[in-house]
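>> received
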Amino acid sequence: MIRLSRQTTQRIAFWLISLIAGLVIASILLIVGLVIVQGSGAISWEFATGFPREGMKEGGILPAIVGTLLLTIGTAIFSVPIGVGAAVYLAEYSEDNALTRTIRIAIINLAGIPSIVYGLFGLGLFVLFLKFGTSILAGSLTLGIMTLPVIISTSEQALRAVPHSFRVVSISLGATHWQTIRRIVLPQALPGVLTGVILGLERAAGETAPILFTVAAFFLPRLPRSVFDQTMALPYHLFVISTQVPGMPIRIQYGTALVLLAFVLSMNLIATLIRRHYRQRRQW
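>> returned
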C-alpha cells in the first residue's frame, strides 16, 4: 500500500479543488457568454421599453420588466423586516432550548422545500382563502414567505459573528439591550445581513413556479395599476416564449434571458458596493 506524505496529499487536494472550481467557473462563463452572444442582437430601446405584440413575437418586454421589479420590491417589503426581526430574536433574545432548536431546524427544512409547493400554498391561502386573487399582492406574499428561511438563517449567522465584547462594552457604558443591538450589533452585522437579503431576493426574482399560481399573466400588454392586478414577469415570460409559443425567434428568447440575467447581476453589484462600504467601516 502506497502512503503519500502530508505535503503530497495537500498538493493533490489543492489541485483537485482548483480543478473543480475551474470547471464551475468555466461552466458559468460559458452559459453567460452564450446568453450574451445569442441575446445581444435582440437588445434595443424598443425591446426594453415597448409592449409585446403579434403574440409576443414582436415588440418589447416592458410589462415583464416592470412586473419583476414590482414583485422583487414587494417581496423585500414583506420578507426583510420579518426575516431580520426573527434573526435578531433568535440570535439576541432567545435561549438555547428545545424550542429554539426546533425552530432553527424548521427554518432549514423550509429553505429546502421546492418552490412549486410555496406556489400551491400561496394559491390556497392568498388567492383563494383571503381572496386576493391572482395579483401582485398574492405573488409578493408568496415569494416573501419563500425567501424568509434564507434571510433568517444568514442574518442570524451574521449577528452571531459580531464579537460578544462589543455587547459587553456597550451595556457597561449604560446602553440598554435594544440600544446595543440597534446601534452596535446590527451595523456591524449589516454586510452579512445584506448577503442573505440579496440571496433571497435573487431567488424570488428568478422563480417561475410560485408566480405561476399567484400572479403571472400569459400575455398582458399593459402595466399594472394596483397591487390587486396581474402582471407579466421575466421568468414566466421566458418560460412561455420558450415552450408555449411556436415559431418564437431564438433571439427574443435569449434576449429575455439576457435582461433577466442583467437584472439579477445588477442586484448583486449594488449589494456588493453596499457591503464594501460597510465592511470598510467595520471595527473587527
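>> The mean pLDDT is 89.
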